[in-house]
Amino acid sequence: MPELPEMETYKNLLQMKVTGQQIVAVEVNREKSINTPVSQFSKELLGTRIIQIHRRGKYLLFELETGKILLLHLMLGGLMYIEDKTDIISRTKQVILSFSSHKLVFIGLRLGYLHLHDSTSVKGEIADLGPEPLHSDFTHSFFESLLESKRGMLKTTFVNQKFIAGIGNCYSDEICFVAGLLPTRKINTLKKDEIKKLYNSISTVLKEAIHFGGYIELPLFKDDQLTGGYNDKCKVYDREGENCVRCGNTIVKQTVSSRKVFFCPNCQI
Predict the structure, then answer these.
(1) Which of the 8 DSSP states describes residue 188?
(2) Is 151 an active-site residue?
(3) Is 20 left (phi over 0), alpha (psi -120 to 50) or beta?
(4) Residue 265 among the catalytic residues
(5) Which end of the chain has fewer surrounding CB within 10 Å, N or C?
(6) Would you call 60 helix, strand, or coil by DSSP?
(7) Taking the CA atoms of the chain, what radius of gyration do you get in angstroms?
(8) 251-265 pLDDT, tens per residue?
(9) Would residue 2 show up in a list of annotated catalytic residues for this protein?
(10) What phi and psi values does residue 134 have, to the nearest 5 degrees?
């Protein structure tokens, strides 16, 4: 599932590709992927322009010049691709937004969705999200205050979007590895210096992942050299059986609360 770095990468690339472009055609092949009748959805979008794209946690918000907002959550399996006349992806497309020279296609939206909102209703949809971990307000002292009442494991706490927005299975494991902490570690057992390491690791991992385009390797468009570049740089996620880059021991995988957890049992404590 795309997490904060993937959605930030998509946001930055889409800003260059679709912002300011007029939507000239709308095609919906799966009505369950949207939240209004197809005719209304198409009417609201046709002829309008995307003037800005924002990210909140794992969501993208496409701001239209009419004041309406398209709220995108890719969930598990959802992806996007920008087609042109010479490059058409051979995948089932749930929603297609056409511009003058290219198309933005949404694929794999079986659990994900592209919903149309006004500025008030969209706030309600994302009201429960936790803080943004790369925002300037996300200070060390603020992070400490978030942990004060927590007693669960790092893994299950970090993937809770009400705790911190945007971190999921991949980056929770990567953050714990960089901090030298087991993802199964209980939060109330952390020492002050370990909390500091954890805090620093959040910024380090997420910024590096954004720099290299996240871990999901399907490019957003032809000749996209950025998207997916972090996949080869993951230290533990999906690296079961490989040697730890820090100590050389074997990376293991466990299942915790129905989630895969990857870590080094030797150098994470």
Answers:
(1) G
(2) no
(3) left
(4) no
(5) C
(6) strand
(7) 20
(8) 999 999 999 999 999
(9) yes
(10) -105, 5
